[in-house]
């Protein structure tokens, strides 16, 4: 059940409309940074393997098989080690993920403001960011007051000044999007880790109980 829940959460994060709209973008020959998906794929793998390993442990307990319970324990130790490694990786890269996406947005934004922007897809990339995150422009003063602003780059209708004043900066929205998603991943990882610890303890207790049973 825990494996199924983790798998469900991971698939929801993987197919969330906001992240997929942004991370599938392509600026010329450059693909949007999708490092975020590495953590999601790890969660999907852990959830799927947990479902299989859970069945293995349940069957081993019913059959009172020391071999199956020992295999169950070994698989849990390996999964736990992978999850700890993934957690460390996520903690180290949590700020870098949002930073890479913001740099990608800034590059698209600069291309969208250039005179020759009609020859590339910078304008389309920027509009996707603005519409998906309901934001308008970077969070620097140059981006906000530049005379090269185009009204059709922002989702709000009306004057350029109104767009700038009423819309949040895209840098802030990008930080909120990925920090929220990574927060969910962190909670899921902690829950799985706690469950695994209890599973390892109980499987060894059961295995030792079977070994010491008078039946054997």
TrEMBL record:
<dbReference type="InterPro" id="IPR008952">
    <property type="entry name" value="Tetraspanin_EC2_sf"/>
</dbReference>
<dbReference type="GO" id="GO:0016323">
    <property type="term" value="C:basolateral plasma membrane"/>
</dbReference>
<dbReference type="InterPro" id="IPR000301">
    <property type="entry name" value="Tetraspanin_animals"/>
</dbReference>
<keyword id="KW-0472">Membrane</keyword>
<dbReference type="GO" id="GO:0008289">
    <property type="term" value="F:lipid binding"/>
</dbReference>
<keyword id="KW-1133">Transmembrane helix</keyword>
<feature type="transmembrane region" description="Helical">
    <location>
        <begin position="68"/>
        <end position="92"/>
    </location>
</feature>
<dbReference type="Pfam" id="PF00335">
    <property type="entry name" value="Tetraspanin"/>
</dbReference>
<dbReference type="GO" id="GO:0002250">
    <property type="term" value="P:adaptive immune response"/>
</dbReference>
<feature type="transmembrane region" description="Helical">
    <location>
        <begin position="182"/>
        <end position="206"/>
    </location>
</feature>
<dbReference type="InterPro" id="IPR018499">
    <property type="entry name" value="Tetraspanin/Peripherin"/>
</dbReference>
<keyword id="KW-1015">Disulfide bond</keyword>
<keyword id="KW-0446">Lipid-binding</keyword>
<protein>
    <recommendedName>
        <fullName>Tetraspanin</fullName>
    </recommendedName>
</protein>
<keyword id="KW-0812">Transmembrane</keyword>
<keyword id="KW-1003">Cell membrane</keyword>
<dbReference type="GO" id="GO:0042127">
    <property type="term" value="P:regulation of cell population proliferation"/>
</dbReference>
<comment type="similarity">
    <text>Belongs to the tetraspanin (TM4SF) family.</text>
</comment>
<keyword id="KW-0391">Immunity</keyword>
<dbReference type="InterPro" id="IPR018503">
    <property type="entry name" value="Tetraspanin_CS"/>
</dbReference>
<feature type="transmembrane region" description="Helical">
    <location>
        <begin position="36"/>
        <end position="62"/>
    </location>
</feature>
<feature type="disulfide bond">
    <location>
        <begin position="135"/>
        <end position="170"/>
    </location>
</feature>
<keyword id="KW-1064">Adaptive immunity</keyword>
<feature type="disulfide bond">
    <location>
        <begin position="136"/>
        <end position="154"/>
    </location>
</feature>
């Amino acid at each position: 059940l825990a494996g199924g829940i983790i798998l469900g959460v991971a698939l929801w994060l993987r197919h969330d409309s906001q992240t997929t709209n942004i991370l599938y973008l392509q600026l010329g020959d450059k693909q949007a940074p999708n490092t975020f998906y590495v953590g999601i794929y790890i969660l999907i793998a852990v959830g799927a393997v947990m479902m299989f390993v859970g069945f293995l442990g349940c069957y081993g307990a019913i059959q009172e098989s020391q071999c199956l319970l020992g295999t169950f324990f070994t698989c849990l130790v390996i999964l736990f080690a992978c999850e700890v490694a993934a957690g460390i990786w996520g903690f180290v890269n949590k700020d870098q993920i949002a930073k890479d996406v913001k740099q990608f947005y800034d590059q698209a934004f600069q291309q969208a403001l250039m005179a020759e922007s009609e020859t590339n897809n910078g304008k389309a990339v920027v509009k996707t960011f603005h519409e998906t995150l309901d934001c308008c422009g970077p969070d620097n003063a140059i981006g906000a007051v530049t005379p090269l602003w185009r009204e059709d780059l922002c989702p709000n209708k009306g004057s350029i000044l109104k767009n700038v004043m009423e819309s949040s900066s895209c840098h802030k929205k990008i930080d909120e999007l990925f920090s929220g998603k990574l927060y969910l991943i962190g909670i899921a990882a902690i829950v799985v880790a706690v469950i695994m610890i209890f599973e390892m303890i109980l499987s060894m207790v059961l295995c030792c109980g079977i070994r010491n049973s008078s039946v054997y």
